[in-house]
Design a protein that fits this description.
With 267 residues, this protein is α/β, with parallel strands linked by helices. The protein is built from eight helices and seven strands. Helix 2 runs parallel beside helix 3, helix 6 packs parallel to helix 7 and helix 6 runs parallel beside helix 8. The radius of gyration is 18 Å and the shape is globular. The two termini are 24 Å apart.
């Protein structure tokens, strides 16, 4: 058993290289945090793919400048396009790039500073124990500064996810995840924005992919300092519509497929 406490960051880095794990960072106008996130990720991960989702700030210049810093040793690939298409689209661009460049796993982390790159070893340890699973970061939804709307939306999403898939997860809306790329083969998303991350989990569950939660830290700055592109009313409405659609699809496809898999003992 691979224990996080018994290894160094150098060990984690080497293991990520051996297992062909890259870190995918989708970003949209997070100039204030992207470089700090990159520095901290690069201290652990040898390979990074940054997806510039139509950024209109100076994120590009900051990333280019950081790449030229002395001591920066990570292999960094930047996927860039002019028009903002949403986080779901950015993730698919990152996954396709990872597959193209020979990676077998993609660990996704947000660029707004919410996630702690120092938790990456937790994902790698879980991956070693469950190499075919999607590893899902589970935040403490009760911690200080957690926005009340986020907590409600997550509980709402967790409930309907369990109804649709029969799988219970403590956090279905986190963007901090590790995907075995071979399990994403042929995935086509219905949506292209935040709710696409829920889609990925639902489709994975219906396909019989194990979903493994791991506890992660999360940072929410005070409200006056918070930068978020999540639109509470619009995006929550989109998630609600998607859940309604998935409930219908679960009846005619998801539940029968899960039952057939149990009967035939297939994964």
């Amino acid at each position: 058993m691979w224990m996080v406490d018994s290894v160094t960051m150098s060990d984690v880095r080497q293991l990520m290289s051996d297992r062909k794990v890259c870190v995918v960072i989708p970003t949209y106008n997070n100039a204030g945090t992207i470089v700090d996130v990159l520095r901290r990720v690069a201290a652990i991960a040898p390979d990074i793919i940054v997806v510039m989702d139509g950024c209109t700030d100076n994120s590009r210049e900051l990333v280019e400048r950081w790449q030229q810093e002395p001591g920066q040793t990570a292999n960094v690939l930047v996927e860039d396009y002019a028009e903002n298409h949403g986080k779901g689209h950015a993730l698919l661009v990152g996954f396709k790039s990872a597959i193209k460049h020979g990676f077998e796993y993609a660990l996704t982390i947000d660029s707004d500073g919410q996630h702690f790159p120092e938790d990456i070893p937790q994902f790698i340890a879980a991956m070693e124990e469950h190499p075919e699973a999607v590893i899902v970061g589970a935040r403490n939804l009760q911690q200080e500064n957690m926005p009340g709307g986020n907590t409600f939306a997550n509980r709402f999403s967790n409930f309907w996810f369990a109804v649709q898939t029969g799988v219970r997860l403590p956090d279905t809306q986190t963007g901090y995840r590790l995907y075995p790329l071979r399990r994403l083969s042929g995935v086509h998303l219905i949506t292209s924005r935040y709710e696409a991350e829920l889609e990925l989990l639902v489709f994975a569950a219906w396909a019989g992919t194990e979903l493994m939660p791991v506890p992660v830290n999360v940072y929410y700055p005070p409200a006056e300092e918070r930068v978020s592109h999540f639109r509470p009313f619009v995006d929550f409405a989109r998630i609600s519509l998607l859940n309604t659609l998935f409930c219908g699809v679960a009846i005619v496809y998801g539940w029968p497929r899960s039952l057939w898999r149990k009967i035939t003992k297939r994964k």
